[in-house]
Amino acid sequence: MVEVLIVEDDPMVAELNKKYLQKLTGFNLAATVTNGEQALHFIHDNHIDLLLLDVFMPKLNGLDLLKYIRISYPKIDIIMVTAACNTNDIQTALRLGVIDYIVKPFTFERFRTALISYQERIRLLSSAEILNQNQLDDRIFTKNFNTTNRLPKGIDAQTLQSVRDVIVNYQQDFSMSDIVELIPLSRISVKKYLDYLEELGEIESHLTYLPIGRPVKRYIYQK
């Protein structure tokens, strides 16, 4: 579960960020704060994976907070969600390592794309010690903000997430038949999604040999 802190002084935008975040699986809203000073106090006392960060805020603005976090909390990832669209602010944020930059006003689809891309990125980086160029290009350094377009032909983003949601709850290995019982998809379709997740390194497979009949391919989720 990704622990998220929203840093936003506009209550309407903060509520919108919260509403959008709650539509996505795999993310937990740890808190919402209204300025950089409050954010620092919260980060000091709590584990946070991701900040949704505004720029224009009282007491300590987003860019100054970003500079401090990069020094003191380098493992925290940051997505800017802000009305600051001048090139100086954007360049400063990029040089300080933000992973995405969303300009207000924004749509749910743009918000979702940023969060799902981040989710795929951390899954990939935590599931493998070595990455090839295709994996880097497809999941880390993509030039296309549309996550749906980056998926292989025949792989739907929503269905892929549904399959993920099922397999992460398994405490032990599972077979394709186990997944078919829980998702309204054909065996061929389920196999296609499992093969894709195995290619990404999110699951691993092995053969289980039975006394009678063919061996059964079983999978295990790579937590």
From TrEMBL:
Keywords: Activator, Cytoplasm, DNA-binding, Phosphoprotein, Transcription, Transcription regulation, Two-component regulatory system. The keyword Phosphoprotein applies. CDD domains: REC_citrate_TCS. SUPFAM superfamilies: CheY-like. Residues 3-119 form the Response regulatory domain. SMART domains: REC. Its main location: cytoplasm. InterPro entries: 2C-system_Tx_regulators, CheY-like_superfamily, Sig_transdc_resp-reg_cit/mal, Sig_transdc_resp-reg_receiver. It is found in: Cytoplasm. GO terms for cellular component: cytoplasm. It holds the Pfam family Response_reg. One of its GO terms (molecular function) is DNA-binding transcription factor activity. PANTHER family: TRANSCRIPTIONAL REGULATORY PROTEIN DCUR-RELATED, TRANSCRIPTIONAL REGULATORY PROTEIN DPIA. This is Transcriptional regulatory protein. The lineage of its organism: Bacteria, Pseudomonadati, Pseudomonadota, Gammaproteobacteria, Orbales.
